[in-house]
Write a structure and sequence with these properties.
133 residues; mainly beta; 9-stranded mixed sheet; 9 strands; 56% strand; disordered N terminus
Length: 133
């Protein structure tokens, strides 16, 4: 029951970021016992500085330790974009003209939202994987 209460509380925290996080996105929490893997399709409709994004985050990651070393990989449609938004104005844009994005890095404690989009407005299929090192 405790884990269910944590799951219910996390989306509310993610919504407080004001990053346009959809209420139905999955939430993962570090430390990750296994990679997060999610596949789907977005219809880009929201212009941004990182291409045209879908309506909401496709994944939310709650980093519970001081920092987490993660490898983020997205494969999908040509023109693929990935926007990662987090606490304190953190915003990182990745583009993958050939449909592949690899974004390793360190994330500080906090909540991060992952948005998939496209350089145009074409429907975009994607496979997102987040691994903790």
């Amino acid at each position: 029951m405790t884990s269910l209460l944590k799951f219910v509380a996390l989306p509310a925290a993610a919504l407080a970021l004001g990053a346009g996080v959809a209420s139905a996105q999955p939430v993962a929490q570090t430390p990750l016992s296994q990679p997060v893997q999610i596949s789907g399709s977005v219809t880009p409709s929201r212009p941004s500085n990182c291409g045209v994004l879908g309506d909401g985050a496709v994944q939310v990651l709650q980093v519970t330790q001081d920092f987490a070393a993660v490898d983020v990989a997205v494969n999908g449609t040509s023109g693929l974009t990935l926007l990662i938004q987090g606490n304190n104005g953190f915003s990182e844009c990745h583009t993958g003209g050939g449909g592949t994005i690899n974004a390793p890095g360190l994330l500080n404690r906090g909540t991060y939202s992952f948005f998939v989009g496209n350089s145009g407005s074409a429907p975009t299929n994607y496979n997102l994987t987040i691994r903790e090192n």
